[in-house]
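Sequence in, structure out.
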Amino acid sequence: MHVVYAFWSGVVSWLANRAIVPGLAALHLTAYVDRPREIAQYFLLTAVQVAIIAFVFRPMESLWPVEHWADRRFTVIDRSYTLIKLFGVLPLFTYLVLSPLSQWLGGSSSDDAAGLISVQGMLPWLGHHPVLLFLVYYAIYDLVYYLIHRLQHGIPWWWALHSLHHSQRQLSCWSNDRDHYLDDLLEALIVAAVALLIGVSPTDFALLVLSGELLQNLGHTNVRLRFGPVLEKVLVDPHYHRLHHMRVDPDRPQLHACNYAFIFPLWDIVFGTALFGEPAHPTGVGDPMVDADNRRGIVAQQLATLRRFWGAFRRRAGWRYGEVAFNVNYEPISVKDFDLHELESSHIPMAASAPSPARVTEPVADTDDQGISV
């Protein structure tokens, strides 16, 4: 074990001295970031995470797939999202935003973080049990994400952003980071604010995010893996989260409003949104305006999602809590006012609510050519 630790420490030091320090200097960021070893360790852990996705989760999808696809062309874009987020967005936010804020609030080092409602301040004995303290942070972190996730589905302008994540019909081990960057920013700001509030250090925050990301990557994996009747109620498994991504069931139109938890099903159980014992369903979104994301590249997806967001955000209907779809003018329409399954079957977006509306004549590409094995 000592040999492994010494090797790891040596690699961290080499990466910090040979890459991180020169890189920060070249970007003129040394005045803002003064812990190159921390950053080096983050990138090494991220590399390990990507390796697990590529060399463990991905082969599992080939061996025991839930959905059988003729090809995986729609999953390639999600891999790009993952690499951009893990190696770009997350480290920039953690070390250029969270770390300075933590120091401003009184944290004196990477292992110290002041908080207005510090968990260690309320329960000092947890400071002597770092593993237990981390688990407490993890539970709070997951609860915050659960509540955010409910809002992402319930507030129409936020759903306009989050719908990009759900538009993927080929849900795979790379799909977790398929997000709009404004959605990511809102999530990160809320989670980071809570982390600062309860006194999570930047180091612990990075570990929370990375370990949470890896478990969520597993949750999105296209693999016939279930944890069993007991463990599935403790940790989210791929089957549990796949049900959250299911498309609308015409006979049970609200069935997909379930399984919002990322790590612990406990929150779904407590708030009445847990669904167990249901077979796998096709994934994706029934709204043709959102489903069209599958025909676009990253830049086009980001722009189209932003148009949906602005169309909802600037309208009163965009602030009314409830499930919606979008018409051709990006106006959110409550699913209570139409048949969502019929809309999905038509592959044609809803007409505008203006007088003499013209329906879109170009059908949205239907990518539902896979079979499902349960």
